[in-house]
Amino acid sequence: MAVDLFLKIDGINGESRKKNHANEIDIISFDFGAVQHGSFHTGGAGGGSGKAEISDIRIQKEVDKSSPLLFKACASGKHIKEAIIYSQKAGDGNAPLTYYKIRLEDVIVSDIHNNGASGGDSIMESVTFNCAKVTFDYQAQNEQGGKDGGVVTAYYDIRQNEAG
């Protein structure tokens, strides 16, 4: 099933024309993860846990009207209140269903790179974000693509080293 990805950033518009995501940024992919440095090799029999290391979130997209503003935010170190990545697919009756959402709070554009080639379809852009807090929401779906139960949510506050 095809998935559409969007990025909504406070104060920075994109060129999406999709219903419910107009003026957001169309993205091609994103990459994100976490590492727990604790192990059963440290901390005795119970297994020690360390502070989780949360990776920056990297997105891939085509250059659009958000590109100069993302570059400016990176160069200036501007803090952005919130950025949200939406993952959407056809749902029950083919109505779009947002089934996965990543919400970033107190965001910094930590890296931006453009990549173009003569004869290519478009100029591609890689943008990386660092944040103080990340929240994940996942909506399970039934066989018809509709909602199946409530949203499952988890967060990690990097400053407080707190998961919930």
Summarize the structure.
The chain is mainly β. The protein has a single domain, classed as Pnp Oxidase, Chain A (Roll). The chain is 6% helix and 54% strand.
Structure description:
The structure is a single chain. It is built from 1 helix and 11 strands, in the order ββββββαβββββ. The strands form 2 sheets. Strands 1, 2, 3, 6, 7, 8, 9, 10 and 11 form a 9-stranded antiparallel beta sheet that branches. By secondary structure, it is mostly beta strands. It has one domain: Pnp Oxidase, Chain A, CATH 2.30.110. It has one helix at about 65-75; strands spanning about 5-10, 25, 30, 35, 50-55, 55-60, 80-90, 95-115, 125-140, 145-155, 160-164. About 5% of the residues lie in helices and about 55% in strands. A hairpin with a 5-residue loop joins strand 7 and strand 8.
